[in-house]
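hey
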């Protein structure tokens, strides 16, 4: 019996013309073609999960599922180049959600809730309640879910060598740099990136937000609700960057610098867990980011608390099947496998509460830092100006004593970030 006929009354609201065909007769079984995009390091696991999905629904169709490489960090740019030619199912970072939805590149999953219930045996509310509240909120716009939460590890914290640094040493940037210098090592962090350098501003109470017109709201050149000025934050960053024990690392080069053996501590995320564990050996440890000094006060460094979602192309020709596949790639079993094989931090509450995840050093540090994390929602023009500011801090182009020069640099950065979308 054809799926369109079976589900006609259920799907009349949104998808009658775009639903896949389900068959239960071997003679009538049709081939359903789907394309999935995911990170390069996830290809093997994605293939395994897609094979399992095809087997689970073998009574309804024969599946031809192609898997391609596309990083979550670059998914938006690739998808928006040609939405119709993009994958049916793809993974993306949480800060890309609004742009993808506005372009029609993500299906509203609420429209396909009854497909999910009829064939996966779960409601969309089941999916939401199974995952962390933060991940569901970040995947939603105006109460509608546009992506299945898959990972909550798109954030950063501090790795360190506990044979050279103590827990007390890594509590503040002042003591961390002093201890690293005494140990003859460096503390590494990327500053020339608005993803990383925002951590100092967020910690001091500054904000960013995405406006409806795609521009970014940012207050870093003013005074935060906590009473700190942007100039004070930059002065603190300059003090850190100017310390001989600090290493400013180019964006994307953290793994190589860990492997060099020059670092005794580094700011990074779970993707560098294996590299840090190998280099630090028995001293492998991780914790939340340190506090930093503003005047005579210690300010907890913030961070970006990002998520990874799997969404469905709103222009998919097999959109119903794509919804079922996307859910399958992100359910509890899938997230268990992503953690086991990739150490990917789960959003699924049951997986996150497991002994395996709780005992993981990197995941424990991520969870500790998450209390200070901010879901970073910004427009495309945020990145270049904030990277330039960070590079100027890293290179010492700005002087810690030149408050007027720092204010001018902040004003220039904010002007660039808030520029109208062309």
């Amino acid at each position: 019996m054809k799926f369109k006929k079976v589900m006609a009354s259920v799907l009349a609201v949104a998808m009658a013309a775009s639903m896949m065909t389900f068959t239960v007769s071997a003679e009538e079984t049709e081939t359903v073609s789907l394309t999935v995009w995911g990170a390069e390091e996830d290809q093997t696991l994605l293939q395994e999960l897609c094979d399992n999905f095809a087997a689970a629904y073998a009574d309804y169709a024969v599946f031809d599922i192609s898997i391609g490489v596309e990083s979550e960090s670059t998914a938006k740019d690739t998808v928006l180049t040609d939405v119709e030619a993009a994958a049916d199912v793809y993974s993306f970072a949480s800060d890309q959600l609004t742009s993808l939805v506005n372009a029609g590149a993500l299906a509203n999953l609420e429209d396909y809730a009854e497909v999910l219930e009829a064939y996966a045996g779960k409601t969309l509310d089941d999916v939401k309640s199974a995952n962390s509240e933060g991940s569901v909120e970040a995947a939603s716009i105006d109460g509608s879910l546009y992506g299945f939460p898959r990972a909550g590890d798109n954030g950063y914290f501090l790795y360190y060598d506990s044979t050279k640094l103590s827990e007390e040493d890594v509590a503040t940037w002042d003591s961390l740099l002093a201890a690293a210098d005494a140990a003859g090592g460096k503390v590494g962090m990327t500053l020339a990136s608005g993803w990383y350098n925002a951590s100092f501003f967020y910690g001091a109470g500054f904000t960013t937000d995405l406006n409806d017109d795609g521009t970014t709201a940012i207050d870093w050149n003013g005074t935060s609700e906590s009473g700190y000025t942007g100039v004070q934050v930059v002065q603190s960053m300059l003090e850190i960057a100017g310390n001989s024990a600090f290493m400013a690392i180019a964006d994307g080069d953290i793994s190589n610098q860990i492997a060099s053996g020059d670092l005794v501590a580094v700011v990074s995320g779970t993707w560098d867990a294996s590299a840090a564990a190998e280099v630090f050996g028995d001293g492998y440890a991780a914790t939340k980011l340190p506090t930093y000094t503003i005047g005579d006060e210690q300010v907890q460094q913030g961070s970006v608390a990002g998520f990874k979602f799997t969404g469905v192309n709103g222009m998919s020709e097999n959109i119903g099947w794509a919804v079922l596949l996307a859910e399958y790639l992100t359910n509890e079993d899938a997230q268990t496998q992503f953690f086991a094989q990739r150490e990917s931090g789960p959003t699924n509450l049951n997986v996150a509460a497991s002994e395996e995840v709780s005992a993981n050093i990197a995941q424990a540090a991520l969870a500790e830092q998450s209390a200070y994390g901010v879901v970073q929602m910004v427009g495309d023009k945020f990145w270049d100006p904030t990277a330039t500011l960070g590079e100027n801090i890293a290179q010492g182009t700005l002087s810690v004593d030149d408050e007027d020069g720092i204010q001018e640099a902040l004003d220039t950065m904010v002007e660039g970030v808030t520029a109208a979308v062309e």
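The radius of gyration is 23 Å. Residues 403-417 form the longest helix (15 residues).
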